[in-house]
Amino acid sequence: MSPPSGVKVVVIGAGLAGLSAASTLVKAGFQHIQILEAMGRPGGRVHTTRPFGQDIIELGANWIHGQEGNPLFLLAQEQDLLLKENSSAKTMCLPGSITSKDYFFEESGRQLTMDEVEKVCTLFSKLTSKAFDSELQPKHSTQSLGGYLDEEFSQSPLALSVAGQRLFEWCKRSECTDEASSSLYEVSAVQLGHYVALEGGFFNSLGPGGYQALADTLLDSVPPGALLCDRPVDSIHWALDEEIHTHPVSVQCQGGQSFKADHVIVSVPLGFLKVKAAAMFEPALPTSKTSAIRNLGFGIVDKIYLRFENRFWPDDCAGIQLLWDAGPEDEKVYKQSQSDNGAWRDTWYKKICGFDTVARHPNVLCGWITGREAEHMESLDEKIVGEVCVRLLRSFTGWSVPEPAQVLMSKWGSEPFVRGSYTYPPPGVDAVREHTALAAPLPQPCDARYSQAKPLQVLFAGEATHINFYTTTHGAYMTGIREAQRLINLYADRINVKVKM
Ligand SMILES: Cc1cc2nc3c(=O)[nH]c(=O)nc-3n(C[C@H](O)[C@H](O)[C@H](O)COP(=O)(O)OP(=O)(O)OC[C@H]3O[C@@H](n4cnc5c(N)ncnc54)[C@H](O)[C@@H]3O)c2cc1C
Q1: Cα–Cα distance measured from residue 477 to residue 460, given in angstroms and rounded to the nearest whole number
Q2: Of 11, 48, 164, 486, which one has the greatest count of Cβ atoms within 10 A?
Q3: Residue 160 is assigned to a structural domain of this protein
Q4: From residue 282, how far is each of 180, 237, 262 by CA, in Å?
Q5: What is the predicted pLDDT for the residue at 245?
Q6: Alpha helices, DSSP H only, in 28-111?
């Protein structure tokens, strides 16, 4: 059985959410699927490149977060896309997850012992796990993650040593890469309990095709021509009178091309919605949705790749981590920076956590930076960023560090159709309510104005619409399937398909 042959679905955005929605609908028998992608390539925040030769560099997503219950991991396994050999390079595990091969340096050039490092990192990991496992006390309910961590750490003897404090600051700076936040003082401690970390670790890296191979697998199941790149959507007109218009929704692209649809799945990033949603929808979005778009946080994580002609770090070194005397995640420094009239820009580089070695690239290091400092870095020339990184590496390690042969940095904050990296819950926000509101289709069943209108005209997918797996690729992938399933259910009497989530 198939859905009615005339049903037209437009999917906006060809990231993993949009592609999984389209692929699921095609498999269920929908015949008219059009994917409109603003950029010149599919993938969105999956961006696999080859700037340093044959082997891949991921400018966006890198890891599959967990294996058990992860449908994206299963897909990668089924399609034989997982890495076969073991690699010891640091980019096999998350930034901030230290290995015994990480070298930690203070500003003075002193290298810390692994014993010093492990004690603080282990405590930090225990404290953050309490937040993620919903084990916080009621007194933490209104606190930021940074505030909660400071309070708990101050009770540990490790807080009495200067090195302990510097390491703790580094741990917080590093955790900002997981939360995509400018600072942990801008993330809710208690709301993190809604995020679900899947079992199975992060060591399941993708093979030589990288994340793009997963996107390609989804694309393979949609007919040629279903994807149109370089088609930025300007506006979505829904609830059109079907006596006048043949379809209830009309999608207008920049340049004037328009597409009629019965259903539109909007999978654009939250960062894009923050800037454009007010002008994009006609009728305007309901307040529940505009509040969700405003209240949820969407921060920047950037990578800085440095390729050297020759490797200058020891063979057993998996990462060079930088401990400032007083770094940006130090409570006092953070508070001062709130009223320093932008003086933090002069020391933006202090937000760089360190430089990790990179799988398959023996001469490449990857630096990590987040938040407003990342946004500032994006405005600088790559040559200048490279010079700053080399200056840091030289002054912290005392090693003879050559000039890099190539510098490549991501610019997720200034990417016009993304405007950030991923979603986080700020303090005081009811994240479950906001993710749910963001995901709700239009027209809302409770809205009397549209009681006679066709259901499910505008649907919303994308990582920010997932309550438990926001920020992740598998979250994005599952939301695409979720929205496709809504449409499949709508036409259920004519389709005999149930999709696995
Ligand atoms: C640096 C970085 C590292 C990351 N690391 C990981 C990781 O290791 N593991 C992990 O699980 N996740 C990671 N993520 C997050 C992950 O990449 C995202 O959660 C996921 O890819 C989001 O998919 P999506 O389909 O929701 O959105 P996107 O991939 O952003 O897709 C949305 C698409 O909509 C398009 N679009 C926007 N506006 C318009 C418009 N007006 N018209 C048409 N198209 C439009 C965009 O161009 C984009 O292609 C990382 C992200 C970044 C940036």
Answers
A1: 13
A2: 11
A3: yes
A4: 31, 5, 15
A5: 81
A6: 71-78
Domain end: 409, 433, 461, which one? Answer: 409
Which domain covers residue 325, as residue numbers?
A: 94-201+301-409
pLDDT of residue 203: 58
Helices 71-78 and 210-220, axial angle in degrees (round to 10):
80
Tell me the CA–centroid distance for residue 45 and ligand 1, in Å.
3
235 phi/psi in degrees, rounded to 5: -150, 155
Give the tens place of pLDDT for each residue, 72-107: 999 999 999 998 765 545 544 445 555 668 999 999
**What CATH number is associated with residue 346?**
3.90.660.10
Q: Which helix (H) or strand (E) holds 23?
A: helix 16-27
Residue 454 inside a domain? The answer is yes
CA of 166 to the centre of ligand 1 (A): 33
My answer on whether 169 and 225 are in the same domain is: no
CATH number for the domain spanning 429: value is: 3.50.50.60
Q: Would you call 278 helix, strand, or coil by DSSP?
A: helix
Count of domains in the chain? 2
Question: What is d(CA 266, CA 462) in angstroms, rounded to the nearest whole number?
Answer: 8
Specify the pLDDT at position 492.
87
Let me know if residue 448 belongs to a domain: yes
Cα 462 from Cα 485, distance rounded (Å)? 15
Name every residue whose Cβ is closer than 8 Å to that of residue 363 and which is 6 or more positions away in sequence: 307, 308, 309, 310, 311
| CA dist., res. 40 & res. 367, Å (int) | 27
Q: What is the pLDDT of residues 367-418, one digit of tens each?
A: 999 999 999 999 999 999 999 999 999 999 999 999 999 999 999 999 999 9
Query: Which amino acid makes up residue 285?
Result: L
Cβ < 6 A, ligand 1 pocket: 12-18, 36-39, 44-46, 60-63, 65, 232-233, 267-269, 272, 301, 303, 410, 412, 417-418, 421-422, 462-463, 471-473, 476
Q: Is the pLDDT of residue 281 over 90?
A: yes
Total residue length of the chain:
501
Q: Are the C-beta atoms of residues 236 and 249 closer than 8 Å to each other?
A: yes
